[in-house]
Amino acid sequence: MSYELEREAIALKQVIKGNFAVSHGVRLSRVKVISAYPITPQTTIVEELSEMCATGKLDAQFIKVESEHSAMAAVVGSESAGVRSFTATSSQGLLLMHEMLHWAAGSRLPIVLTNVNRAIGPGWNIWADQTDSVSQRDTGWIQIYCESNQEVLDSVIMGYRLAEKVSLPVMVTYDAFFLSHTSEVVDVPEIQTVDAFLPAFAPRFRLDVNDPRMFGGMMTPEYFYEERFVMHKDSMEALDGYPAICEEFERVFGRQYEACESYRTEDADLILVTAGTITSVSRIAVDEARKAGKKVGLMKLRLFRPVPLEHWRRILGYASRVAVIDRNISVGLGGVFASEIKNALFSLEKRPSVYSVIAGLGGRDVTPRDVGGIIDHVLASEGPVESPIFWGLKE
Amino acid sequence: MDIDERNRMAGLYDFKTWRDFPPMNVSMGNMLHNRTGSWRFIKPLYEDKVPACQNGCPAGNDIEAWIKLVQRGEYEKAYWYLKREEPFPAILGRVCFRFCEGNCNRAPLDEEISIRELERFVGDRVPLSTPYPDIHPFNGKSLCVVGSGPAGMSAAYFARILGFQVTVFERLPVLGGVLRVGIPAYRLPRSIVEQEFEGLRGMGVELKPNTAVGKDISLEECLARFDYVFLAPGVHGSTKLAVPGEEGTPNVMSGLDLLRRIALGEMVRLGRQVIVVGGGNTAIDAARSAVRLGSHVTVLYRRTEAEMPAHPAEIAEAREEGIGFRFLAAPERVETSARGDIEKLVCCEMELGRPDESGRRRPVRKEGAVFDLAADTVITAIGERAAFEPMAGILEKDKGVLEVDEGLRVMAVETGKGRVFAGGDIVDAPHTVVHAVATGKRAAVTIDCHRKGVGFAEALKRISLGDGQGISFSAYMGWEPLNPVRRNLKTVVRSEHIVYDYFKKAPHIRKEVLPAPERKKSFEPYEETFTEEQALGEMERCMHCGRCTECDNCLVLCPDVSVLVKGNGEFGYVFDYNYCKGCGICFTECPRHAITMVDEETAI
After folding, report:
1. Is the pLDDT of residue B356 over 90?
2. At what angle do helices A18-28 and A43-55 cross, to 10 degrees?
3. How far is the C-alpha of B530 from the C-alpha of B97, rounded, in Å?
4. Do A55 and A171 share a domain, yes or no?
5. Of A367, B215, B239, B540, which one has the fewest beta carbons inside 10 Å?
């Protein structure tokens, strides 16, 4: 390898933590306004971004605020002014944003937010748990769950593309510490390459002091309903438009993404469904199971809102059993993803038995052995179980 | 854009199906007519109001404004500003019964402000004989003032400013009425009164002492010679005790007589033991004067201390000077020797029965509870009666009061009807100096309305302050208020409007007062005027109720940066209604209620 080539390879491939992957994604997307409030484990994202702003690597306004609610309010303002904007948060911070999340989506502002999935207190816990983002599923935001640092970076760039196409905000989420503070090899693309994929933001409406409009004004029962319908329709349009964006991304960057992904599912009797880092662990468990002659596959959730119903049905429809592993809990029901999967499969004439498994809450480690245990447990089960299985519960 | 135009615009966008909707929640027309959107339905405005002290002052003294001027270091301007509404600060700064202080919003926080002392301080900053600088040229009409007491002086002062040719007739050889021959010199030095008259003379008021209307000149002649007559003869007669033994002895005398004789420099001899009968201010003045003449004094009052009409501060100072009080007792008879010396005063204990028409409980004789009091002199101060010869008949009929309308026009005069006005103690008003000054001020305004042929009822309504007790002479004259902001003369700022969290507790500044044993040796005044340091310290306590002080609270707290400083040396702020959301934080957080919220559609 020549010296030149070696240097180029070093420049492209970097060993970075998930949070820095986000910072680079934001830089490469030429974001103009960043507003955020620090919260573990999100903090280093915005620390790195403020550094980039300070050193001139990123030409953006960094707005310091006193809360996440204000952070979202600030980017609602800047995005309304027609400027590509970004914020990041986690857990309690996301919850504090809740009102403004609805506002951003209802205002049809293509903001991108990264949320580092962290448990919600009390008890006070800073480790991985997806209850924070799943509890925001009805805000109108597009949600993307990531498995690796590379996927995090790519999802930020693709997020702006998707958000600006349908005028809806995108939330990119990934697990605390397993990704946020873990270094992986990440291909950080050249900004010119990203420019080719992500054109400058061309807002359909923008705040203009010389032609002031009223944004988010009063809407009577006569009109509100239709406006919500249009929002839903555009979210579904995001689903329809997603494959084309993924294709173009693959063409430019050589990495392939889909609304959801399958692994060894073709002839599977049992398909595991996962989101986030449990997916990587489960791949190992699936390989182990296959070696042992068990017909087991895996479906990885990426796009959670809008729901890729057809996609899910196509992958899961032929299996006899589906086990959904949720690193979240809707207390009084069980796993949120399991519930959504059941909803998706209900209209099928012949549908698999769906097992809901709760695992890894509050950052408890879920190992390949755990997933192997889940596989064996479900395969040995006599029939569908209505109540969720709490895997690893200290009894 | 008016409402019709907005509705027409709205009609252009008829969203029939969801396909017609814009891609964002955004108005189709622009919002140049209202840049803040349709959020606001009430809006703030800066509006100075009537502080509780001014509302409480019968003369409508604009206290807050002259305090602010002193605080800015403009002492002389403060003096003249004070004199816009209240002509004699050096006098009232000494003798006023402080209705302002009784209303001061500072009281719930710590203590009321010593407004009277501050007025005295301002009054003493400028030589009193200086005439008021802003006088209208003669308007061709003349006014005859009968009586040179505070009501007559006040009428003369304001009428002269309004351009009248004023002549004052005083029956006594000295000018000032009650100020000169009623109020003792230890409360009001003679020189102060004399200098104030110098000021009036300097303004062009003609002063004629030794001229009794009804004797030296008839009322008819006054009406013939002058366009208007203002009657302020005061009250000089005293109510008799109506008990046996009262007549025929020089040792029973009225308090008013005693005070007048002392004031005119007569040698007055009182006995060793003096009993003063009565509970009003005249009783206290007489008692304290008797102490200064060397007597031992007891005040006899038929009700309890709570019902005493005298000012509590006066009662307290009387006590300090060793004056005794015997409550719930009234004289039955005076027993005298053949020579006329009083042997004893026979009294009866009283108890309080049902309230009378004054609202106070009526004293009732306790049967058989008779007791004797040793007395060498008995001074009566149980009531005063107007004694004005030309109207004796009318006064007799109407319980010693001249009936007047709200413009102080005398109703019962046939001759010159509509040209005769009255004020001071002869009309139905409390017998205090400031009430007298207020009647003179009001009469001057109504006389001017009469001259101009305009209805005074409407004029008074326009310039009346707060609850309607006082009037604003400045508003009548069209003089600019100190704060160049919209002014509301009707809304009174009371304690419930004040945001006390913004004010630090600070008890009021007390002056050194000569101790009682020293001060009762003579008729010399025993209190100094505030020093500059004391006055400024006390003024620091003024909360400037209802008046903007540029404290910046609204500026700092507005969440929409919609309070803008006027700048370029101009006073105050402006609201940027393009961005104000009508949240009312400025209104709620204004420490002194100088901001008002009005309906959005109100024209401002």
Report:
1. no
2. 40
3. 18
4. yes
5. B215
Residue B470 in any domain: the answer is no
Instruction: Kindly determine whether residue A226 and residue B17, on different chains, have CB atoms separated by under 8 Å.
Output: yes
Same domain, B516 and B564: yes
* CATH number of the domain encompassing residue A187: 3.40.50.970
pLDDT higher than 70, residue A163: yes
Q: Which run of H or E residues covers position B146?
A: strand B142-146
Is B26 part of any domain? no
In chain A, residues with a C-beta closer than 8 Å to the C-beta of B27 are 213-215, 217
Q: What is the pLDDT of residue A8?
A: 46
- How many folded domains does chain A comprise? 2
- B140 to chain A, any CB pair closer than 8 A? The answer is no
Contact assessment for residue B150 and residue B424, using Cβ atoms and an 8 Å cutoff: yes
Q: Quick one: B110 and B141 in the same domain? A: no
Same domain, A57 and A126: yes
Q: What is the pLDDT of residues B358-386, one digit of tens each?
A: 788 888 988 888 999 999 999 999 988 88
Q: Are residues A383 and A357 in the same domain?
A: yes
Q: Shortest CB distance from B21 goes to which of A107, A205, A227? A: A227
Smallest CA–CA separation between A131 and chain B, in Å? 30
Last residue of some domain: A210, A226, A253?
Answer: A253
Residue B220 has pLDDT above 60, yes or no: yes
How many other CB atoms sit within 10 Å of the CB of residue A221? 6
Residue A3 falls inside a structural domain: no
Nearest CA in chain B to A222: B15
Q: What is the pLDDT, as a whole number, of residue B3?
A: 58
B31 reaches A (C-beta below 8 A) = yes
Of B355, B382, B409, which closes a domain? B382
CA-based radius of gyration for chain B: 29
CA distance B158 to B471: 12
Looking at residues B221-243, what average pLDDT do you find?
Answer: 91
Q: Is residue A1 part of a domain?
A: no
Cα distances from A324 to residues A275, A279, A307, A371, B400, in angstroms, run 9, 11, 16, 11, 103
Question: How many domains in chain B?
Answer: 3
User: Hey, what amino acid is at B243?
Assistant: V
Chain B residues close to A218, C-beta within 8 Å:
38
Q: Report how far apart the first and last C-alpha atoms of chain A are (Å, whole number).
A: 57
Residue from A205, A213, A220, A235 to probe the interface with B (highest B Cβ count within 10 Å): A213
A216 and B27: CB-CB below 8 Å? Answer: no
Q: Is residue A4 part of a domain?
A: no
Domain boundary among A232, A253, A274: A253
Residue B30 contacts A, CB cutoff 8 Å: yes
- The answer to whether the CB atoms of B30 and A215 lie below 8 A apart is no
Residue-number span of the structural domain to which B178 is assigned = 127-236+386-455
pTM comes to 0.73
Residue B452 above 60 pLDDT? yes
**Are A16 and A96 members of one domain?**
yes
* Residue percentage of chain A with pLDDT more than 70: 97
Query: Which of the residue ranges A282-286, A385-389, B161-165 would you say has the lowest mean pLDDT?
Result: A385-389
By the CB < 8 Å criterion, does B14 face chain A?
Answer: no
Q: What pLDDT, on a 0 to 100 scale, did the predictor assign at position B413?
A: 67
Residues B279 and B368 in one domain: yes
Same domain, A200 and A151: yes
Residue A229: which of B18, B25, B37 has the nearest Cβ?
B18
Domain-embedded: residue B352: yes
Q: B19 to chain A: nearest residue by CA?
A: A230
Contact A214 B27 (CB under 8 A): yes
Q: Is residue B334 part of a domain?
A: yes
The bridge status of strand B563-565 relative to strand B573-575 is antiparallel
Find residue A274's DSSP bridge partners.
Answer: A300
Q: Which of residues 89-128 of A touch B (CB under 8 A)?
A: 106-108
pLDDT score for B6: 60
Helix (H, G, I), strand (E, B) or coil at A91: helix
| Interchain contact, B30 vs A212, CB within 8 Å | yes
Gap from B502 CA to chain A (nearest CA, Å) = 26
Same domain, A152 and A72: yes
Residue B408 zone, left/alpha/beta (φ > 0; ψ -120 to 50; rest): left
Q: Is this prediction's ipTM beyond 0.85? A: no
Among chain B residues, the shortest Cα distance to A214 is held by B27
Is B381 within 8 Å of B301 (Cβ atoms)?
A: no
Q: Using the beta-carbon criterion (under 8 Å), do B21 and A226 form an inter-chain contact?
A: yes
Q: For B47-100, how does the pLDDT look when each residue is reduced to its tens digit (9 = 90+)?
A: 999 999 999 999 999 999 999 999 999 999 999 999 999 999 999 999 999 999
Report yes or no on A6 lying in a domain: no
